[in-house]
Design a protein that fits this description.
Elements lengths: L6 H23 L4 H34 L7 H12 L11
InterPro entries: FtsL/DivIC
Keywords: Coiled coil, Membrane, Transmembrane, Transmembrane helix
Protein name: Septum formation initiator
């Protein structure tokens, strides 16, 4: 006749399996689990792309600022800005609307 497990052994097995399932679930779904790590890595990549775009924009603005400074004046850029901001035109130009 097969030997039966005692209540203590059954409780130990159930508790061990329960804890194993809990830790497996926490490793996947928990606040520092695998899925959260994947989400953080995706957010990191998105934020790095935004950072790079902002760096490019800052670099462009620094270039424009330098070109309009007193030390280095780009006359073509000054002319372009005067036309755009102030609505200036040259006497020999014709405006079409």
């Amino acid at each position: 006749m097969p030997q039966r497990l005692s209540i203590g052994a059954i409780a130990f097995i159930v508790l061990t399996c329960g804890l194993g399932l809990y830790f497996a679930f926490a490793a996947v779904q928990g606040p520092s689990g695998i899925l959260r790590r994947i989400q953080i890595e995706a957010e990191t990549a998105e934020l790095e792309a935004q950072r790079d775009a902002l760096r490019a924009e800052v670099s462009q603005m620094q270039n424009l600022t330098r070109r309009l400074s007193d030390d280095y004046l780009d006359l073509d850029l000054l002319d372009e800005q005067a036309r755009e901001v102030l609505g200036l035109v040259r006497p020999d130009e014709v405006i079409l609307r």
